[in-house]
Amino acid sequence: MPLKGNWIKYGISLLSVIPFKIGQPKKQIVPKTVERDFEREYGKLQQLEDQTKKLQKDMKKSTDADLAMSKSAVKISSDLLSNPLCEQDPKFLEMVTALDTAMKRMDSFNQEKVNQIQKTVIEPLKKFSGVFPSLNMAVKRREQALQDYKRLQSKVEKYEEKEKTGPILAKLHQARDELRPVKEDFETKNKQLLEEMPKFYSSRIDYFKPSFESLIRAQAVYYTEMYKIFGDLTEQIDEPGLTDEQREKENEAKLNELRALSIVADD
């Protein structure tokens, strides 16, 4: 029975699966090894659910930050273009215009990158997370079936311990009849989960591999374009033979001249 098709209708957190307090049967109805296997697989899926949600949240934060960065860069270049200083200095206007063009190109490529990541990474993460509520409901139903099984097994044991009178034998027979379908129901649910939980966990690799390959490609294309854009910008605004250290010294000298003015001199 397909995991997703049967579980997709329901929605409940794995953490909400709380055992009911009932009388415990003396007979060990579920082998400890089976319970350990179930808890191990169940725990792996809980961890996968948490990691998927965290990854989806982190990817959204990353793309939001990317968009904010490029939009801010465009805003800075736009503000510089509207500064009166540009009108008074043609050379500076040419540099800022080149910067503005580069920032708009960067923003455009960044938007394409974010759109691709949204489509190929964030949306698949969201869809994958959407399977967990139905999976969690299947776990809860298995737990409910187990509690019903324990309750009826305890009831059978109670009558088995009593003196075998006619009425007691009749009640014992009725209790065993009630137990049989409940036992089968639990065993079916338990078997299905033990078979399908490992398959679902293993499927994460094939499911997410294309998404992260797409993420890597999107980043590679983006930064390749950024290298070209900023390379072109450097050629347009760079002054040959002037190092960053020389520019720093030049700026410091001009700042010292400003500090020497009487309007900024210390009293």
Architecture blueprint of SSEs:
Blueprint: H1 3-7, H2 32-81, H3 84-88, H4 90-129, H5 132-161, H6 166-237, H7 244-259
Characterize the structure shown.
The structure is a single chain. This protein has helices at residues 3-7, 32-81, 84-88, 90-129, 132-161, 166-237, 244-259. By secondary structure, it is mainly alpha-helical. Helix 2 (32-81) runs antiparallel to helix 4 (90-129), helix 4 packs antiparallel against helix 6 and helix 5 (132-161) packs antiparallel against helix 6. The longest helix is centred in the last third of the chain and has 72 residues, at 166-237.
The amount of beta strand, in percent, is under 5%
Rg, rounded, reads 34 Å
Overall pLDDT: 87
- From the spread of the alpha carbons, the general shape counts as rod-shaped
Strand/helix succession: HHHHHHH
Q: What distance separates the N and C termini?
A: 86 Å
- Structural category is mainly alpha
Q: What can be said about the biggest beta sheet? A: none
Helix proportion: over 70%
Count of DSSP helices? 7
Looking at how many chains there are and whether they match, the oligomeric state comes to single chain
How many E-type strands?
A: 0
- Low-pLDDT parts are 1-22
Keywords summarizing the entry:
267 residues; mainly alpha; 82% helix; disordered N terminus
In short:
The chain is mostly helical. The protein has helices at residues 3-7, 32-81, 84-88, 90-129, 132-161, 166-237, 244-259.
